[in-house]
Automatic annotation (TrEMBL):
Mg(2+) binds at T20, D54, E113. Homodimer. The gene is bioD. The keyword Cell membrane does not apply. Its cofactor is Mg(2+). It is found in: Cytoplasm. The active site is at K41. This is ATP-dependent dethiobiotin synthetase BioD. Substrate binds at T45.
């Protein structure tokens, strides 16, 4: 990663957009550069005690990273709702930011992966991942879907992030389809406009099902040189145009 940051916050335009795979790809590339990597998941929902969660998936794909999960809730709901239903204490932005800062003292890169979108509530006071990023003065990476509907969700995420004084580093397509439709093809050029920041990657569909070595190659192909990869948005778009 050129001009490396010590903490990077990874958010999605919604749930199921590929945040965990992108987080794992970032971690894998950083590890390949010899960097000490930590991954922080402030709130994991929809996973029972003893079951593997998102940070377990990251370590499976990326290898040896420090993985920390602050709170786990069994219901597949927003963290604040899941915490209320379970009776388990919520995770506030201050606790999450404090944990990230602590990890940053002994690691070269700390990746903070959110739950769902940027404004999903962590606690009854309305704390969100945006508050965590603001507290850390950390840049934000937005993971978006490839197809129809993604432009609005990406624009909303980027607009609120900017309004809250956050630095939107760029956008990554969390799962680029093997057979993209017209909307996905058009969105390659339109997503950076919606995000107001560059397209920094497009991770191949199914990358999360690969073994560790193959995943590293997929991460390298799917993420920008800014993260240690080979992805070039202009070359990517030209290749798609040549195929269509």
């Amino acid at each position: 990663m050129s001009d490396p940051v010590s903490v990077l916050v990874v958010t999605g335009t919604g749930t199921g957009v590929g945040k965990t795979a992108v987080t794992a790809a970032l971690a894998a590339l950083a590890r390949a550069e010899g960097r000490r990597v930590a991954v922080l998941k402030p709130a994991q929902t929809g996973v029972a005690p003893g079951e593997p969660g998102d940070i377990d998936e990251v370590t499976r794909l990326a290898g040896e990273v420090t993985a920390r999960e602050l709170r786990r809730y069994p219901d597949p709901l927003a963290p604040e709702v899941a915490a209320r239903r379970s009776g388990i204490a919520p995770v506030g932005p201050a606790e999450a930011a404090g944990a990230a800062s602590e990890l940053a003292e002994t690691h070269d890169l700390v990746l903070v992966e959110g739950a769902g979108g940027l404004l999903v509530r962590f606690d009854a006071d309305g704390g969100t991942l945006a508050d965590v990023a603001w507290s850390l003065s950390a840049p934000l990476l937005v993971v978006a879907e490839a197809g129809l509907g993604t432009l609005n969700a990406t624009a909303l995420t980027a607009e609120v992030a900017t309004a809250r004084g956050l630095n939107v580093l760029g956008v990554v397509i969390g799962s680029w389809p093997a057979q993209p439709d017209l909307a996905a093809l058009c969105n390659v050029s339109d997503l950076p406009v919606a995000a107001g920041s560059p397209l920094l990657g497009a991770l191949a569909e199914g990358a999360g099902g690969l073994d560790r070595d193959a995943f590293l190659e997929a991460a390298r192909a799917g993420l920008s040189p800014w993260f240690g990869g080979d992805f070039d948005a202009e070359r990517f778009e030209k290749g798609l145009n040549a195929q269509s």
